[in-house]
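quick one before i forget lol
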Amino acid sequence: MHFLSKVARWFTSALGTIVFWSLFWVLLAIPLVSFSAEQPSLSSLGDNPLSLAPKLVERNKVKPGDALTFAVTLKNSSTATLALSAVLEEYYPYPDKKVTTSPLLTWLQLSQRDFSLAPKESTKISATITVPKDTAAGSYMAKIVFAPTINGQRVADKYTQNVIVVVNVVEVEKVVENVTLEQFAVEPSDTQYGPVTFKTTLTNHGSGSVFPKGEIVVKDFLGTEVDRVPFQYFSERQLFPPGETVTFKTQWDSFLLKDPEALPYQWNFLQEFTFDTSYWDKLRVGSYTAELELSYGEQGKTIAGSALLFVFPWRFLLYVLSFVVLGLIVLDEILRFYRNKIRVQIFSEVTKIVRER
């Protein structure tokens, strides 16, 4: 009892209280520290922790009953070990339209669904697609989402990487490729500055997705080629499924003079235009013709169209003319000054000679 009373008095003393609570908080913090060390934080992931290739897998002329394979390479670019989860999701290039469940989700099998990557480590994930024998012709699409997880929860979408899978199933000897040009126009059709946008509206009447490729050739009023602009389709999902009408936008910015409204500063006289004097060949003035040259499909069918563009930078030319006129006026005043000065000198010399006689 004497010993126990001493222990009780020690715990109630100031020193005992400090030691007791210090040990309590140290023991409480140990599991929290060890847990946080096991899981990467969002800040340790960086901006692009995960890279992937390819981002699009397309298989054409697939027959019912075929078995397909492909592989995806992933790399951890962060400084932390990433726990990754692969998820199969619905995909359609036009999310505003209603889509039925894609059977491709049940055809697609991955070699791994949950795995981890050490810092700077790469790995390959293989996939197989088994197309049932009773599959109807058409385009079947799905998306494989590779997402880092923290504490078993999927992180924000900006850290994920997607693979778009497209399987075009056709009947034997019945491949239909038919794309029509609905409209090819340039906006604005008359302008002072660049850039301008070429709008190409196409309709896919075929039985599978196509990838229109080509360029837009720009010629001046003499028929001389001045530029070739690569045709731009979808930046992330380059898909053009059957039965769809899509407008593709291609920007042409090869202009010496750029739109002042696009400048990051407010307008004033000296900042009316922005241009690089090393590219005087890009000074666009007059009438231009844009010729669309596209090809698509296995048979290399072509699509052609043309549109007119008129460029007249009247404000820039007005400024140039104003400076020229101002320069001529200044030059005339300078010449007049020197002419009067010479006349005075000549008159003085003549007067001096007359007086000497």
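fyi The chain has three domains: 45-169, 179-312, 325-357.
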